[in-house]
Amino acid sequence: MRDSELANLDNHPGDLGSEVHEEELEETQEIFLDEGERRIAEARRALADGSYGTCRGCSTPIPSARLEAMPEVVLCLHCQRLFEGRHRQQTRLERH
User: Fold this and answer.
1) Alpha carbon of residue 55 to chain centroid
2) What range defines the domain where residue 62 resides?
3) Per-10-residue mean pLDDT for the chain, 96 residues long?
């Protein structure tokens, strides 16, 4: 084949898969970054209104070790687990 003929050939199907994979990775990264920004903004609001360190779910103090590890949290571990469990159930129901 001559070079001019090669220019007219389509890309290999694997190339499309690689492109889709890269796009999905970028979208996933955007989702994580957006979620992180939302959590930081929520923690800043709690700091501004004086409720930082108090769980928004049950109003108990959030342990200092948790705040030290993840300063953006606004839920205690128990409430966070409940929230994530409800979110997983809701996501499963929406998919079916």
Assistant:
1) 20
2) 11-95
3) 53 69 88 91 95 97 96 95 88 71
Question: What token pair was written down for 70?
Answer: 């993840």
Task: Tell me if the pTM is above 0.85.
Answer: no
CATH number of the domain enclosing 30: 1.20.120.910
Tokens for 73, please give them.
Answer: 């949290």
Residue pair 54/62 in contact by the 8 Å Cβ criterion: yes
Long-range contacts of 82-90 (CB under 8 A, 24+ apart): 82/57, 83/57
- Residue 13: what residue type? P
44-to-4, 36, 49, 75 alpha-carbon distances in Å? 60, 12, 9, 14
Distance between CA atoms of residues 84 and 92, nearest Å? 12
Backbone angles phi, psi at 31, to 5 degrees: -60, -45
Asked whether the beta carbons of 54 and 61 are under 8 A apart, the reply is yes
